[in-house]
Amino acid sequence: MPHVTETRVHPMFVDMTSFTSITKFVTDFSALSLPLHGLVNAAGEAMGPAGRGADGKMPSHTLVTNYYGPFYLTHLLLQHLTTSAPARIVNFCSALGEFMGKVDWNDLRGEKLVDSDPLAAYNASKRMLSMMTKEMAVRCKGTGVDVFAVHPGFAATNLWHKSLRCYPAARAFNVAEEWFAQHPFYGALPALYALSEPHLQGRSGLYIGPPEMFPLMFHTRVGDYWRGESRDEAACTRLYDLTVQIVAHTVSDGLQ
To answer: Which are the catalytic amino acids?
Structure first.
């Protein structure tokens, strides 16, 4: 990664639970006329508040935070990334999602997840994100935009600190994080590697991060998706197409 001597940070606000906020963010970013060489979707929620997203358009707060929000943001910024190519998209996925996440094809909007196990909602959202990542890598082939999924390992971020303590699993994960998790720096390593490693140019679709049995080691390991539907190309394509339809019907202007 080249050393940068002069930088300027331009903070901008976006609420990933609100399609309205995401649309405004993209409009404001476009007005800056800046190139876009990297997009990291790191927003995440586990066992958070029940109910809808901020603008009320999606029934599951967790599903829109972890999946539909990042999907919509990425879709709107894809032309910017293509124009600025070479560029990269990096999506934060999850070991729990790979182990336990299941796609409910009869409830992709998450209507049932509102009142069900909140951990199941998290796992489903992360499974869907990894599947979307794999399919987007296929669709971006030849555009100069590479797409990667990353797994941070077990890092002491604020993910579980912000979970609702009324859930026993949330309390358990929070205690485990206090005692065993690594510094957030190590959790960021897979994303930084995916975003900046020159040898990854043109190797879109990889899954980067610790192997499933060693969540505290090998943070820049490059491999394939671990298991389940994330390895099913037909399922990934189906989910992507259905997601486009769902988002198009949800946002007022549709999805071009």
So the answer is: 122
